[in-house]
């Protein structure tokens, strides 16, 4: 066998080692079905984690108390309340060190949690319950917030604030995008562009809260 013939397999192996492995398809955590983009999620309340699911399995956990309450289906509604806006004083009282944050109620811990995107992933911020009540606790969106599976997503930019009630999984999607694209101290141009595009999609998806507060 010639030297040239021996070299070919070695060259191909080195090339494969240099190339990233193709992404594995996501599968349902419960039945193993291969999942399409935009699939559903459930919250594992004991592990404080999201699980990917097919539509059929997600429906099993739609009713309260299913699986003894451990798994809860993440809803898909996005709501906005144009009548409620935070001024600079209210925002500063939250003591959030960045321009974007989301709040959700953890049923197991029986408390509110404030998280914001960072280069290291989701970072928790101390949240004073009295401040929450004064700034957001009495809002119509807060009254509709479902524990564990929904969040209030806030952003302060260009002198105005935005507040949305969103599925918890899109908040972690935002965290992942920021972690992937973050550069330097302020995130850099690419991270800022991702942030703008993300909130643009949330704005388009959101439905204005009716005057009577119905969901």
Query: How many individual helices?
Result: 7
Residue share in helix: 25-40%
Major β-sheet profile: 7 strands, mixed
Which radius of gyration do the C-alpha atoms yield?
Answer: 21 Å
Output mean pLDDT.
Answer: 84
Low-confidence stretches: 1-9
Secondary-structure element order, as H and E?
Answer: HEEHEEHEEEHHEEHHE
Distance N terminus to C terminus?
74 Å
Q: Beta-strand level of the residues, as a percent range?
A: 15-25%
Number of separate domains: 2
Number of strands: 10
Shape: globular
Determine the structural class based on helices, strands and strand pairing: alpha+beta
- Give the neighbour order of strands across the main sheet: 7-6-5-8-9-4-10
Describe the structure.
The protein has 215 residues and is α+β, with helices and mostly antiparallel strands. The protein has 2 domains: 74 residues, no CATH class; 130 residues, no CATH class. The protein contains 7 helices and 10 strands. A 7-stranded mixed β-sheet has the order 7-6-5-8-9-4-10. A 3-stranded antiparallel β-sheet has the order 2-1-3. A hairpin with a 6-residue loop joins strand 6 and strand 7. Helix 6 packs antiparallel against helix 7. The longest helix has 18 residues. It is globular and about 50 Å long.
């Amino acid at each position: 066998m010639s030297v040239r013939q021996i070299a070919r397999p070695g060259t191909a192996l080195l090339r494969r080692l240099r190339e990233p492995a193709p992404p594995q398809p996501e599968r349902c955590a419960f039945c193993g079905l291969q999942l399409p983009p935009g699939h559903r999620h459930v919250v594992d309340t004991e592990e404080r984690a999201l699980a990917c699911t097919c539509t059929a399995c997600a429906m099993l956990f739609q009713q309260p108390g299913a699986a003894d309450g451990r798994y809860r289906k993440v809803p898909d509604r996005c709501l906005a309340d144009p009548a409620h806006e935070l001024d600079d004083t209210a925002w500063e009282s939250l003591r959030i060190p960045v321009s974007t944050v989301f709040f959700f109620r953890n049923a197991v811990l029986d408390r509110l949690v404030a998280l914001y995107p960072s280069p290291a992933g989701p970072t928790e911020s101390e949240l004073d319950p009295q401040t929450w009540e004064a700034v957001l606790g009495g809002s119509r969106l807060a009254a509709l917030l479902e524990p564990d599976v929904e969040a209030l997503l806030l952003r302060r930019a260009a002198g105005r604030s935005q507040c949305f009630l969103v599925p918890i999984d899109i908040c972690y999607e935002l965290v992942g995008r920021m972690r992937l694209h973050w550069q330097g101290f302020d995130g850099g141009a690419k991270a800022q562009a991702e942030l703008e595009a993300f909130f643009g999609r949330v704005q388009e998806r959101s439905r204005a809260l009716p005057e009577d507060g119905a969901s």
